[in-house]
Amino acid sequence: MSARLEKEVWALDRCCGCGNCVALCSKGVLFWGADEHPTLEERDKVLGLSHTKLDTCFFCQKFCEEGCPRLEEEWSALEPRRLVSARTKGILESDEPSDVIKNLLVAAISASFIDGVILMDMDPWTLKPVAKVATTVGEVIDSLGVQYIWVPTLSALNEAVYERGLRNLAIVGTPCVSQGLKKLRSSDNERLTPYRQALRLSIAAFCTGVYLTELVNGFLTNEMDIAPQSIKRLQASPRENLLTALLWDGSTKVIPLTKVEKYTRRGCASCDDYLGESADIAVGTVGAKEGYCTLIARSQVGEICLRNALDFDLLEVSEEVDQAALSRAKEEKERRKRAQAFDKLMVMMLDALGEPRKRAEVKQAFVRLYEVKKPAELRREEANCYAACAQC
Amino acid sequence: MDFCGQKTNILGRDAIAEALKGGNRAAYEYFHYGLAKEIGNYLGSVEATVKAVYLFEPEAMPGEVIEEKPSLTEGLDLIVWVDGQKDALAPLVRVIDGELLDEYKSLLGPATEAMRSLMTVNVIDDRDVQERAGYGALITSIYTRPTKVWSRFVIKLNADYCSKCGICSTICPFGAISLSPGATAAKIDLEKCQLCGICYSACPSGAIESAYYDLVSLVRDVQSSVRANGFKAIALTCRGSTPTAEEIEDIIGVPDFLPICLPCVGRISSEFFLKALDMGIERIAVIPCREDHCRFEDGSRIIRCRILLLQSLLRALDCDPDVLMLHEAEGPIAMIDGDLCSGCGTCISVCPYGAIGADGKSGEVLLVAKVDPALCQGCGACAVSCPSRAIEMSRFADQQMISQIEAALAVKSQNGAPNVLGFRCNWCSYGDADLPFDRLHYSQNIEVIRVPCLGRIDPLHILWAFLNGADGVFLGGCHPEDCRYVSGSNRAEERISRLKGLLEAYGLDSRRLRLEWLKCDNPEDFSDAIRSFAFQIRKLGAHSIH
After folding, report:
1. Average pLDDT estimate for B487-503
2. Which residue, A49, A114, A206, A358, has fewest beta-carbon neighbours within 10 Å?
3. Cut 0.90: pTM above it
4. Residue A51 maps to which CATH number?
5. What are the φ/ψ torsions at residue A63 (nearest 5 degrees)?
6. Got the DSSP string for B288-328?
7. Chain B residues close to A363, C-beta within 8 Å
8. B545 touches chain A (CB under 8 A)
9. Bridge-partner residues for B451, per DSSP?
10. Alpha helices in B69-157 (DSSP H)
């Protein structure tokens, strides 16, 4: 039954679009329609003149819920085991996170640690982002790499695991993709074993939220005259209120960040993971030494993978990392815990409609959430007052 | 032809006959409602030219049983608006009337044997509507729900008095009045008219008539309140600015005043001010919206010019010009709490005025949103869309809304009648809305909360109302095309239809939540709609949670 997903995730605009539910659905009745969340296929049974609407989710073991990262209450972050500034070495010297990730993957494939990887690429015909299964070094290098454009990465999971029969799979995506994978790995459902056994490595890019494809294929193309295939990377700098498009020819184009906000996926508004805290390896620009990007290995697998890339001499690292900047960025995104609390409140309130016993609990939560919301000056005054009291 | 099937089903055919015999006014009212709908559907199916069917009924309140038996024929008008050939349809309508009468007699017994016809039938066409411009506006309402608006008009140009001076056509902010060279009088285009009443206040020959906030009723209200309460001051405020009583007090400087809230103060004529001063009023504060925020384009500017003129007139007459004061008020605006903003950017794309931008204090990776108070018009769309509810509306803060909801539902009805909570947009059903003119008498268990726009209503507020004992929640707002805040009604519609889906999913009948579009031109639309909603809720009964 996708009822829980529908009620608690899709209807509240919380879907992160990782595509896990679509991949795991045992009946294949979920698909990506026009919405920002998957759609449940409707099936009719026709017998003579009678049409019966079938419950498409009937008799299912709720695989979709097993994988949905948004149904998890609390994420315990994996502690960083290694935190370094990294840059690529060799033919291409670059501090781009996507290049660093590619080199990690190239090294891992070369050492036969992994036999395939799911990552983002651009469809050469439609110029739209797609999730792609790459199995060779060439394919990895030719791919687009990390872009903050939404693509349901995990939708390609079945292709990788069942069609291609890959047994050592790496997945590159946003932090929510890693959360979905973490949830999948910790599931004890036997039917999901093939996936669990195949998943070896999850790599996440630091993420503030992803944009919809319309940003590139509509806004940037029409209003800014930037061809989708010429964009190397989009980079947001909130302090200057600018979105910078780095192009392959080395030039840059800038747009006010506030102009493109409407292309942000709505589901990102309640995500609080910036640093990819569920991924084996997380990579991003914040906090790195000049000319480098930050790399966090959070598990043994991640560490092995990093060491492997260093052995292949494809990366060079420095221990110098601005931890304060990292924790500032983390805190900023963790403010979205409040948005999560409101989503939870909504679900609680709806629940309480049917169960009067829950009302007291809802009331408490409601009052607590709204109490914080006093005018900022008033709160500051109160804080000052307490500070003064503490002094005497 | 089924006889009012839809409505008689409420209690069963026999039961409603009993109620009618017993003289229950509510039964009569809904009887009529269904009657018109049936006739409308029937005529619509046989005649493609039928545009609308209206049935105007004797005044009645639901749940009210009165001593004397109401007569069904009294004041009952059926109006069928057809496109073109009205003569062809008239006999058909008369036949229907006859059939209905027979049916009615069989239902109610011999008491009404003497009746010849059930209702007065009028078949009208476009020309009739044009001639009676005022109610033509009401009929162009996309809702063909029967209401008793026949006798009313909102704005009407009386050709007999029109001196063709052309002032109205120049002053109308929407270009709705035209004066063609050969015409005998100016003409109001009701498609364009937004019912601001500015032309009414400007016409020197009194050829334009207005149904409410007209000079006579305004003067009468002032007179009666001066007599009853001894007020010496008046505060005229705009819907858009809606200052609180304390703020008005600060502006006007005296504690006792008569507040008059209008859709636009631009509709007040100079004559009213002079009459008021003549009646012994010592202070008149006019509080329009900011000029660039005026919902009727020129309303604030026009009243400013008028006040300046009047002040110089007073000065010339050796009177104190300061008895008239003009104070542009800030409307409600949104404020973002930078400590709570998590930089998702939702509000930036929601704001219809582009008033939200990035704050200079943005963080490492996420921007902090900030409202430009000069651009914000206070619709509240951002406050609802903010996932962390970090945005606060002045005058319509979440805390205020919540306490209003709680207060409205604190008094539970004693007679087992359902608790109905209504939200009403500031900009529709004017006649109902403004306090000193509040001639509405909701029954005791219908409470109404005013909001700047339906876009301000948070699904959480509605859920909170249900959890606090509301059996039904009603939202009345402007039609999306009439929305004063660009996209407020559209957003409300989307949110409410989603919430309805959720309510169904969690086992609450979604009929307990209703969103209805109201035209701003019919003062009684809102009360009609909410009463019929309350009737439906009564049928559904109290919901299980209580």
Report:
1. 93
2. A49
3. no
4. 3.30.70
5. -65, -35
6. -B-GGG-TTTTHHHHHHHHHHHHHHHHHHTTS-GGGEEE-P
7. 467
8. yes
9. B425
10. 86-108, 126-131, 133-139
